[in-house]
Amino acid sequence: MNKLRRPGTHFELGALDDIGGCRVIVDSPSQVDQVVLVLKSNLDFKGRNPEKDYIREPQKSGYRSHHLFAVVEDEGARYRVEIQVRTRLEHYWATAVEAMSEIYGHDYKSPPLPKEEESMDAERREFLKAVSALFALREGTSPVPGSEGLVANDVIRRLKSLSCLDQLMIDLRASADSVFQPDAIDDGSGGLFLLEFSRENQNLDVERFAVSELRDALRRYDSLERDIEGFTREKRNCIDGGGAYDNVVLSYAQNPEQLSVAYPNCSANVNLFTDMLKQYGI
Q1: Which residues, listed in sequence order, are joined to residue 250 by a DSSP beta bridge?
Q2: Which of 247, 188, 185, 192 is nearest to 215 (CA)?
Q3: DSSP string for 194-246
């Protein structure tokens, strides 16, 4: 909805590149390139601008990932699907953006509003840019705009000069209180996992489907998404009668432990992000 309403754009719903989306997380930039080549040889893509490489050309915000825009046909309809291919470090950074957006009530994925330029939010955005610059240096990829020619120590000094740093790290670590316990999921085998999360009471409910039950999983996912959007609000309570679910994700994983990486709001990713920063003395 925000994209459709964005000033200066003329999007139509069917023209959005990410009306559908999925993500591949790998260990290194070279593996990103390998996955991209495989996908390009096996899928159909939109005619103009079929990809955006935000690893070789990072965004000003610090966002880094390689996007491909596939075209998928199903039952006579054509859909655009955005495929994000990124490294674990890039994913940890994106997870921190999600966490900060929830903590402070601002959408740090979107460009700042004019009133934010002189607020604490400007410093938080600078924090994200600087950390992304550190990660880019670590991976040996293109510098984030504004960090050209800098070495790690330069970026670390920039980070430590931010007045918001100490409180921000405290808030991130507090947000990582674990709500995710993969050991509680049956026998530890893989499949499709439907994760339903309530921010209000920090409940996470998990349903597992076999890969052969993909359509059932998608129907259940669609039903929960509709509930969240308010179609049947009275039905979307947690099992114990607590707060309503406000986030749902359908993920494939070879085992429950992988969900701690696949699920973007899971505390494990924020912990990994803050642990990585400890290595730089932050």
Answers
A1: 194
A2: 192
A3: EEEEETTTTEEEEEEE-GGGHHHHHHHHHHHHHHHTTTTGGG-B-TTS-SBP-
Q: Which amino acid makes up residue 135?
A: F
Give residue 128's identity as a one-letter amino acid code: L
Which of 87, 109, 126 is the C-terminal boundary of a domain?
87
Neighbours of 9 (CB within 10 A): 8
Residue 16: domain span = 2-87
d(CA 151, CA 171): 27
Statement to judge: residues 191 and 236 lie in one domain: yes
Position 159, amino acid: L
pLDDT tens-digit series, residues 171-204: 898 876 545 555 545 556 778 988 887 766 657 7
Q: What is the pTM of this model?
A: 0.72
Q: Are 23 and 39 in contact (CB under 8 A)?
A: no
**How far is the C-alpha of 80 from the C-alpha of 221, rounded, in Å?**
19
* Amino acid letter, 21: G
Say if CB 165 and CB 159 are below 8 A apart.
Answer: yes
Give residue-wise pLDDT tens across range 28-82. Answer: 999 999 999 999 999 988 777 899 999 999 999 999 999 999 988 878 878 889 9
The residue assigned the tokens 């825009």 is 69
Say how many domains are in the chain.
3
Among 175, 177, 195, which Cα is nearest to 99's?
175
- Choose the final residue of a domain: 40, 65, 87: 87
The three-class DSSP label of residue 174 is: helix
Positive or negative, the Cα torsion across 41, 24, 236, 105? negative
Q: How far apart are CA 123 and CA 8, in angstroms?
A: 27
Rounded CA gap, 111 and 114, in Å? 9
Q: Would you call 163 helix, strand, or coil by DSSP?
A: coil
**Residue 140 burial (CB count, 10 A):** 9
